[in-house]
Amino acid sequence: MNLTQEDWIAQLEADDNAVILDVRTEDECDEGIIANAINIDIHKGQDFISEIEKLDKSKNYYVYCRSGARSGKACEIMNELGFDNAYNLLGGMLDWDGEVVAP
């Protein structure tokens, strides 16, 4: 499900079962991440799938990338793997105006 930044933040803040997932490359993450995000690079192909499969499917995942394209794809993959709640941040880090922290 695609969410605007406002909806993504509002839903995330009200969610006691949330995990923030950054699917960018390590180099991109070095420029700053959303606080408490875990990084699993979608460009790693099968390794990405393997890492995603280790995650708790009962959690709610708030997924982002640079522009929203890769995170949208990541949400599709997660849905195919049995994750019911994966939320894509529309516009990604390019449109993010919230806090950014060092990884």
UniProtKB/TrEMBL annotation:
SMART domains (alphabetical): RHOD
Residues of the signal peptide: none
Pfam families on file: Rhodanese (PF00581)
Top-level taxon: Bacteria
CDD domains: RHOD
Matching Gene3D superfamilies: Rhodanese-like domain
Listed InterPro entries: GlpE_sulfurtransferase (IPR050229), Rhodanese-like_dom (IPR001763), Rhodanese-like_dom_sf (IPR036873)
Residues in coiled coil: none
Protein name per UniProt: Rhodanese-like domain-containing protein
Taxonomic source organism: Flavobacterium magnesitis
